[in-house]
Each structure stands twice: as structure tokens, then as C-alpha cells.
Amino acid sequence: MERIEQRACFGGWQEVYRHHSSALDCDMTFAIYLPPQAGHGPVPVLYWLSGLTCSEQNFITKAGAQRYAAEHGIAIVCPDTSPRGDGVADADGYDLGKGAGFYVDATQAPWAAHYRMHDYVVRELPALVEANFPVTDARAISGHSMGGHGALVAALRNPGRYRSVSAFAPIVAPSQVPWGEKAFAAYLGDEREAWARYDATALVSGELRERLPLLVDQGTADEFLSQQLRPELLHVACETHGHPLTLRMQPGHDHSYYFIASFIGEHVAHHAAALHR
Amino acid sequence: MERIEQRACFGGWQEVYRHHSSALDCDMTFAIYLPPQAGHGPVPVLYWLSGLTCSEQNFITKAGAQRYAAEHGIAIVCPDTSPRGDGVADADGYDLGKGAGFYVDATQAPWAAHYRMHDYVVRELPALVEANFPVTDARAISGHSMGGHGALVAALRNPGRYRSVSAFAPIVAPSQVPWGEKAFAAYLGDEREAWARYDATALVSGELRERLPLLVDQGTADEFLSQQLRPELLHVACETHGHPLTLRMQPGHDHSYYFIASFIGEHVAHHAAALHR
């Protein structure tokens, strides 16, 4: 593991590392914000999953989350959004291939060789982080858009692994919207049962799911709201199956980082309360 | 004037406009953050001047200042850093020409035709903003690097025009460092007397200057500290001439937006106190 960036920020350090991922069979970068409290003892970790086209850089440069992480004494880890490198399969378009891993473990050629982002995010990266940084194994997870989908699925599929989960403008029902249908058909094949295991709206109807309450913020002026995000599908599923959901429709907000920046402080506080419990 | 971006942010609006500048004789873009309080009555304005290579976008996407502006009820206006467009002279290198206007009114060919950023920032842009937005004529000014130089010079040269001034990692003595020597020779010619009128360290020795106290933050790990920024030159000039200066050396901080983000809240509070007085 090699440190490639280190910047003082709100009394702590914003760092970026490169390492070889065995889950993805390629080199990966991830970012970690270590708050000032990490200088005195281990701190819990919030994992942040970014959306389509993003790398580990978008959240750390645009969300302004470090201030809140420093206030609450939590680290924030941001992985990249797909495997990377010359040997990794890619596709035309921003919504499949590099930058568009959808946080699934692909089963179909040519994707299965590297696209195992669920395994990477849920298992390999936390193990690496917990072995190499002053952090505890108390974990929370959040994300935006494709990453909001990833965060909800990571939490729902892995009971006990996270203390809290939230999402900004998540793709709540990828099996039912164009972004998800394109990606899941490529990565997972035609069997819809395989898709349901990576679909938050489908997962909340399952018996073995995590029961954590879901905190979701969604802008009402989001340009992807009605075709790709469709939070009402998650709302209905949670109502039907008794899963706790706080869905906040935020007037006037779009899909951008201005939306994330406006509410990330409340999400960090939400996660900090669970992580420090 | 045409609005080209509008995004909800911390209860207010982050907007970007395009207009024709008569000072610069070209089309320009600028950003304005209107806090929630601007919906109920006019608010004072902090002008932010960015550094080399920047546009109006860098500060609004990376500094996280909107939160503080919303807390304190002030607008923030961010101009571009040079004239723009196909008809505008440019040069090789990031430190002269487009993206590197140095906030001077050029007197030399080919620059004099468009490079009048001092006039634009101090006179034309505030007049445009005050005529078209719910703002008062209470003004503050700040900036980073080349923009920190621009902010200090704008305030020192224009007594009574600003209520407060601050800077992050400013080029405090452009006449004495490579960035400034290259730019000033091109824009202002060989006469060093002309340079002194755009040099904060030289201006604090003048009799007709603004007497406002200067607030300057400077990272100790800034990669440009010893060759281009040299805050000790301003410190000595202020000591010699009795100009109030608060120079804060911030341990471990570099020249990046992580540095700005870490302290912009304190600067906004500093300006808000003067603007609401």
C-alpha cells in the first residue's frame, strides 16, 4: 500500500492510497480522512460510495464532509467506483464499465474477471483499512446515486456489518430502471433472481436482511428522479414489509454535490450517533 | 446578463451568470451564492478572487463556503481570473494570460486591450451585482494565492470601498517573486513604479492607502511558500509602517483547497462581523 496524497484538513489528514486489490485483481486507489481524534486512539469509519463516473476524488474535494468528520471523530473512507487499469474490461458510455461498477460481483464475461466491487467494498477494503489505520471495526455506510444503491445493498445484504446506513438520491430499484437494467444485464446476466440480490427495493422484502433503518435524502429537482431513482418504489416496499425508512424529499435540490454538501453534515451526525453508541 | 447555473445549496442558491464586461471588452462568467436571508431583504457581499488557472467554479465547488455564508447571511461573488474568449491575448504557461490576470489593469500590448481585471473586480462587477441582486453596498474581499494578492491590493488601493479584507496564501510582494515579475513585466512594462501600485507589500508603505487590518492565513507546508508567497515581506512592511496585520501560519497545510476549506469558516465570520456592523 502506497500513500499518494496527504493534505492537512480541519486538524486531521485527507490521504489517498494505492494498493493491489485481490478481489478486483487490479491496482486501486481509495481516500481516507483521518480526523484529529485518530491521533489519540482508534476511531470508527464511515464508508462513502460515489456515483457514476466518479473516482475517490469527487467526494473528498466537493462534499465538505471533513469538517463534520473532525467534529464527530470519525474517519471517512472513499473507494473508487470500479476496477481500473489497462487490463480491465470497459464499455462505451458512462454507465457501464470503468466508473460504473454498480457495487456488484459480476458473473458474466468479460466483467467477472475484475468487477467484484461488492466483495471489495464490503470485505477487502474494510479489512485493509482496519489493519493499517487507527480505526475500529465500527462501520457505517453511505453514498450517492449509484453509490447510494451500493450503500443500501451493502447494509441490507450484510446483517451486523454496519451500524448505520444512509443514501443521497440512490438508485433504489435498479432492476426496474434503465441504468440498472443495462448494468445488471451486462454484469449479472439475464436471470432476474440474481438482480434482486443487488436491489434495495427487492431486498427489504427478504427475511434475512439487515433491519437497520434507512435514511434517504432526495432532491425534488433531481434530473434523474422520475426515470432512474424512483424513491417511491423503496417507500412502498418499506411500508409493505415494515422496514423503517426516513425518506426526506428536499425541495429544489438537484443531483449535484451542492445537494450532498447541504445535507452531509446531518448524515455524518446520524452515523456518528450510531458509531459512538 | 444570462443565468447559466442555478443550484439549491444550504437553503439558498448557488448561481452562475454570463454577461458582457465593458471593462474587459469580452463576455465573462461569475458565480454568486445567495443565502436564504436574501429572500427576505438585501444582504452584504463577500467578493472572492481565485488563484492561477482557476475560473469562477473552483471556489464554489471546493471551498464549502456556502454553509458559512448561509449561517451569516452574506452573499459570495466569485469572478473569473482573467478575460476570456477567442479574441483575448494568451501566452504559453499557466502563469500569464488566460487564467492569470493578476487583477491588474494592463498597459502593455497585447494585454491592454482586455486585461483590466482590477477595474472589473473593483468597479464594474460590484455595480452589476448591486444593480441586479438583493444585496447591499457593504463589501468585503478575500482570495487565494494570486487572488489573495488581488484582494489585498483591491482593499489597500481603494479606501472605503471594502469593510474588511483577508487572504489565503497570498502573493504578498509580486514585484519581488518570479510569478509577479513575469506577469507585471508583461502587463505593466518595465517601470517598477507601476508595479508598486499592485503590490501589497509596497502599498502598505504608502500614505493614501486603506488602513483596514489584514487577515492572512498561510500554510507552513505550502509548496510555494519560500519562492512565490513570502509572507515575511508583508509582515516586515506592516511592522515598519504600523499597518495592522494578523498573519497566521497554519502548521502542515499546503496550497490546496483543503487548506482554504479548513479556514474559510473563520474568514467568513471575520467578514460577516464587519459587514453586519
TrEMBL record, chains A, B:
- So what does this one do? Serine hydrolase involved in the detoxification of formaldehyde.
Give the signal sequence positions. Answer: none
Stated family: Belongs to the esterase D family.
Task: State a GO cellular component annotated for this protein.
Answer: cytosol
* Species, as recorded: Thermomonas aquatica
Entry protein name: S-formylglutathione hydrolase
| SUPFAM superfamilies the record matches | alpha/beta-Hydrolases
Q: Which GO terms describe its molecular function?
A: carboxylic ester hydrolase activity; S-formylglutathione hydrolase activity
GO annotation, biological process: formaldehyde catabolic process
Q: Which reaction does it catalyse?
A: S-formylglutathione + H2O = formate + glutathione + H(+)
Please state what class of enzyme this protein is.
hydrolase
Q: Where is the active site?
A: S145, D222, H255
- In short, the EC number is 3.1.2.12
Keywords attached to this entry: Hydrolase, Serine esterase
